[in-house]
Amino acid sequence: MGHSKDQTTPLAVATAIAQQIVGPAAASVDEASRFPSEAIGALRDARLMTALVPAAYGGLGCTITEVAEICQVLGQHCASAAMVYAMHQIQVACIVRHSAGSEYLQAYIRELVDKQLVLASATSEVNVGGDVRTSICAVEREGDQFHLRKQAPVISYGAQADDILVTARRQPDSPPSDQVMVLARKANTTLEQTSGWDALGFRGTCSSGYVLDSRGSVDQILTDGYADISGRTMLPVSHILWSSLWLGIATDAVNRARAFIRDAARKKPGSIPPGATRLAELVALLQSMRAGVQDATRAYELAYDDADALSAIGFALRMNNLKIQSSQLVVQVVAQALTVCGIAGYKADSKYSVERHLRDAYGAGIMINNDRILGASASMLLVHRDE
Predict the structure, then answer these.
(1) Does 344 have pLDDT greater than 80?
(2) DSSP alpha helix (H) spans, 22-101
(3) In a domain? residue 387
(4) CB atoms within 10 A of CB 29
(5) Same structural domain for residues 230 and 376?
(6) Distance of alpha carbon 347 from its chain centroid, rounded?
(7) Domain span at residue 299?
(8) pLDDT (tens digit, 9 = 90+) per residue, 119-129?
(9) What is the mean pLDDT of residues 174-188?
(10) Are 152 and 270 in a shared domain?
């Protein structure tokens, strides 16, 4: 990574926060299924919430690679905190990339930096089966004002967010796929909770369901359509940052397996512990996962300003494959780490425990279900020529 000597880089600052604040609070966040307030508070204080905002607006001007590395470090200490941070950064990326020509949104980006606001998103909707590229709710315009009402099965940390980006049909007579993205400001938005969040893993994301009702100025509608936002920004950034934090979960599980084997070897000098061979396999699997995430991140960075490359079917397939492979590998890696550690990894109160890691890892394939992504990829492959 090349940042270890400089203690002032965003990654170095995030690493210190992860070790000193995020990790120590992780068990409490998981047990109580509560928002990781200590972690997000520390990241706000360090101005890392606007890492992706260009320096011209006062942000840190980080690349997607740098933010992915931060997500990975956070994921090694608390998957919920890492997921909240990643989801927030996805929304920041959407506003930064798709607000050209809007004085209101340009000013909002500066407000994001000044106040280190936390952004959530409401992309899924009841009765559309998890298809975020379809909306039932619509933006109702009255002059220069809008009204929007959406029944969302999940708005992660919706109650804790400062503002929420919401997908909706462009207007009441628009087809379900003609969507826009609207910045719902907290002061003019109500959230009526419809479900709770007592889940297997990622318990600190507080992903309850809500009926969202928002009003405001039409200036709060992002200038680009959601099809463009999704293809160029939301989909690739989501899959890269999610995969990075899953890599963090996997990395910490492997580190615990390494420590277990190392400690076992110390107890019997001159002998190779029974799980050492399995650990060697495990490290190879982790390296494969890491290479896949880094390769896809590099590809996105290279194509970042090339609209044609980002809209190509081949690129969409690559990003879909990244999400599917990473979400499957994180479960495989953690499960194998559990096998290496045995009962010590199975017990929740052991220093080798990977219990929380495994519960969080299973969330990776559920979030925007892999079957839905595979279905989308299958449709694209019907018309895609191999490159």
Answers:
(1) yes
(2) 23-32, 37-45, 64-75, 79-97
(3) no
(4) 25
(5) yes
(6) 28
(7) 226-381
(8) 999 999 999 87
(9) 97
(10) no
The rounded percent of the chain whose pLDDT value lies above 90 is 88
Residue with more model confidence, 176 or 385: 176
Residue 359 lies in a domain: yes
Give the list of residues 6+ apart from residue 276 with CB closer than 8 angstroms, or none: 261, 265
* CATH code of the domain in which 104 resides: 1.10.540.10
Last residue of a domain, one of 179, 204, 220: 220
What number of other Cβ atoms are within 10 A of residue 266's Cβ?
9
| Residue carrying the six token digits 């000013």 | 107
Residue 6 pLDDT class (50, 70, 90 cuts): low
Taking Cα atoms as reference points, which of 134, 363, 159, 116 lies closest to residue 242? 363
Q: What secondary structure letter does DSSP report for 138?
A: B
Residue among 152, 165, 23, 28 nearest 94 (CA): 165
pLDDT of residue 46: 98
* Position 4 in a domain: no
Residues 141 and 187: their CA atoms lie apart, in Å, by 19
Same domain as 87, residue 25? yes
Q: Residue 283: give its domain's CATH number.
A: 1.20.140.10
- Read off the DSSP letter of residue 185: E
Over residues 89-145, the pLDDT tens digits come to 999 999 999 999 999 999 999 999 999 999 999 999 999 877 898 999 999 999 999
**Residues 78, 125 within the same domain:** no
